[in-house]
Amino acid sequence: EVQLLESGGGLVQPGGSLRLSCAASGFTFSSYAMNWVRQAPGKGLEWVSVVCADDSNTYYADSVKGRFTISRDNSKNTLYLQMNHLTADDTAVYFCARGRIASCYDACAYWGQGTLVTVSS
Amino acid sequence: DIVMTQSPDSLAVSLGERATINCKSSQSVLYSSNNKNYVAWYQQKPGQPPKVLIYWASIRESGVPDRFSGSGSGTDFTLTISSLQAEDVAVYYCQQYYNVPYSFGQGTKLEIK
Predict the structure, then answer these.
(1) Nearest to B68 by CA among B100, B21, B1, B34
(2) Which of A18, A54, B14, B17 is buried deepest, with most CB atoms within 10 A?
(3) CB atoms within 10 A of CB A19
(4) For residue range A45-93, what is the model confidence (pLDDT) as tens digits?
């Protein structure tokens, strides 16, 4: 069974940093692209970033480019999101999600439960 | 960047009736080399992560009831629920994965009339 478990969320001050993790199990982690998607309180879904299976390609939403870095450790079956220079607009539940197939261009078939990031002084 | 626009923003349908949600992309998401439309539909219930219903615009995910169907090509797509059930109350999102940055529609809230 595919399982994705996010952690690392919490309260952080504006301008601060946070690193989210997503522990994966139940599948060959290295074979799949992995995404981060966020949802601000009461708002819709916003795609944040993707790292392709071979780790050579990473892509970002314009709203986080230059501030967030996605990475993966295939030896630990873990996905990361390093978030720097956080602002109130980054307050959201952050979901990690896996595609259906081993392609970077794919729908998100499996989702974690999410971790809440709150940026506030 | 590709913008996905859903209509309506909210919808109230009687039990057993048809529900239709539309999604329009700002540019074509049809990849000519494989003739696939890079569009997915998701259902999200309160307090839960999204659940994929449809991918490649019209392929139903395993385990999804057959009352859910997707159609469309190029820039115009539709999610149809043929006979609304109480458990279908949720927010529905379309997404394009044709080009990065991937993008979602703003969501359509479906309620029972």
Answers:
(1) B21
(2) A18
(3) 13
(4) 999 999 998 767 999 999 999 999 999 999 999 999 999 999 999 999 9
Structure confidence by residue, pLDDT tens digits, B22-65: 999 999 999 999 999 999 999 999 999 999 999 999 999 999 99
Report the distance separating Cα A12 and Cα B42, nearest Å.
30
Q: Are strands A3-7 and A58-60 parallel, antiparallel or unpaired?
A: unpaired
* A contact set with B (CB within 8 A): 35, 37, 44-47, 50, 59-62, 95, 97, 100, 105-109, 111-114
Alpha-carbon gap: A75 to the closest alpha carbon of chain B (Å):
26
- The whole-angstrom separation of Cα B64 and Cα B53 is 6
What sign for the dihedral angle of Cα B49, B106, B52, B29?
A: negative
Quick one: CA dihedral A44, A48, A51, A56, positive or negative? positive
Residue of B94, B74, B105, B92 lying closest to B19 (CA atoms): B92
Write out the two tokens for A114.
């999410």
Encoded tokens for A116: 């809440």
Exposure class string for B73-103: b at 16+ Cβ within 10 A, else e: eebebbbebeebeeebebbbbbbbbbbbbbb
Task: Fill in the amino acid letter for A25.
Answer: S
DSSP summary character for residue B87: G
Asked if B58 reaches chain A (Cβ–Cβ under 8 Å), the answer is: no
